[in-house]
Amino acid sequence: MADTADTAASKAAGNTGFDYDVVVVGSGFGGSVAALRLVEKGYRVAVIEAGRRFEDDTLPKTSWRLRKYVWAPRLGMRGIQRMHLIRGEAGVLVLAGAGVGGGSLVYANTLYQPPEPFFKDRQWGHITDWQQELTPFYEQARRMLGVETNRFMTPADEAVRTIAERMGVGDTFHLTPVGVFFGDDETKAGEETEDPYFGGEGPRRTACTACGACMVGCKVGAKNTLVKNYLYLAEKAGVEVLPDTTVNSVVPREGGGYDVRVGRTGGLLRRKRRTISTEQVVFAAGTYGTQQLLHRMRLGGQLPHISPRLGELTRTNSEALLGVERMTGWHRKDDVDHSTGLAITSSFHPDENTHIEPTRYGAGDNLMGLIRTLLIDGGGRAPRWAKFFVEAARKPGTILRGLSVKDWSQRTIIALVMQTKDNSVTVKEKRGLLRRRLIARYGEGEPNPTWIPIAHDAVRMMGEEMNATPGGTWFDLFNIPTTAHFIGGCVIGESPEAGVVDPYHRVYGHPGLHIVDGSSVTANLGVNPSLTITAQAERAMALWPNRGEEDARPELGKPYERITPVAAHAPAVPASAPAATRW
């Protein structure tokens, strides 16, 4: 499983003259789906992943294990949590995942299907009936990811339900749909059992213990990460995964196909660079990674025909990260421990556009507490940082207690806020003094929100119900929102003037290139995007032909036609298994 780029490529080389039929860049939700579904159709597939491979017992014990938790490879940290600060007039702090399995290693297990406005967004709603066309693929994604309703009701959920009732929207409160193995009548928390999803073709699993550490890597083995479903099955079927390998460029070959130039992640020496040849490339490096790579290659001339729409309609899911924290003293054994449960256990909708989820870290996972501070409203003439100093002068005790993150995860519930509103930023690449970097400016639609008033109202109510202090982040004080769900920028359109990819996820201007990660999510969802990324990738791969057979999709650039999905000749999951492919 740990082949190097050289040895894997030499093993795979066949009579096509390419090392692989398809190279997938990234191993997150889109990339893992692509790998499995294409190997089932007979393609020789390699997955290139910048991050390292983790086993359950090698994941970080807490978020303070920086080498395993934080992603900063030049500093020797190859952890699972990426943090990217995109500067500019519409700057944003992006949280994302790293490692074999991509965002599934750090995501909060939460798998909602978005509401109707997503499918009817003006960017793509006129192309087809997306809700109808994607429905069978959402269902397939749920089966593969093992979605069921959260079984743990926590004190925070009781408080959130009360808040929903106070706001007159009690009927919108519900427990979350999650990708977690809870066990069954014969398998209790912490116990191991045979594969429950894939007819014996998947790995053994351990039932959830409600430790709350989902977003720092599930050490129990209960979280349905991609290394326990799509990617596990793909490798078993022959896909080569190349970890610790960064794609530097993708260059068209004379006569067709592409050279994928790679190097060891964090390596500076040219001798560590290699070239892999392939007929087709699937970009699935996450929204930040895919955009960064495509901007570089478009401006550098390697892929000059990528649509100028690249970077436009980039979305933050209209998000905010708020929360409440008990500041009444240090944690005591008789206090409520908010670190137990799943990462996200419930949610509600305070209005038709806004969705709020109570979110937690496990005990000891206190690193993210360093970015929290007082809740400061936006608006008005005074900048928020100035308002902060006024508020701090009024509450010096709160500020002093907030300097410590001792037991932070046990005293805190984060409020993850998302919206379906049509707002966006435009991301472009700018040459800096030492290197190029991405910047963000205001985009189409409404301005990207720097604060969400109804969310601030809800968080203050949470503080009242939970005897806790409401808060935001230090970045909020400078109108830099934080998003865990950075999407868009390579959106679907009916032409290269409208989008970067066509409705089959093929890149305009460069036949043989495809995009199936969060960057091709075309509108704000108002819910966690992982299920949608998976469903879109399932649909895109279902429309590929089996290797060597005729392609039913119209030629790149031709008008969209709805076609029948193509069944794989060698499915990895038995037809009798719960997660068998059914459309």
TrEMBL record:
Entry's Gene Ontology BP terms: cholesterol metabolic process
Domain FAD-dependent oxidoreductase 2 FAD-binding, residue spans: 21-54
Domain of life, source organism: Bacteria
Domain named Glucose-methanol-choline oxidoreductase C-terminal: residues: 481-537
Cofactor(s) required for function per UniProt: FAD
Keywords: Cholesterol metabolism, FAD, Flavoprotein, Isomerase, Lipid metabolism, Oxidoreductase, Steroid metabolism, Sterol metabolism
Pathway entry: Steroid metabolism; cholesterol degradation
Alphabetized GO MF terms: cholesterol oxidase activity; flavin adenine dinucleotide binding; steroid Delta-isomerase activity
Assigned EC number: 1.1.3.6, 5.3.3.1
Occurrences of domain Glucose-methanol-choline oxidoreductase N-terminal (ranges): 207-301
InterPro entries noted in UniProt: Cholesterol_Oxidase, FAD-dep_OxRdtase_2_FAD-bd, FAD/NAD-bd_sf, GMC_OxRdtase_N, GMC_OxRtase_C
Family: Belongs to the GMC oxidoreductase family.
Protein name (database record): Cholesterol oxidase
Record organism: Actinomadura barringtoniae
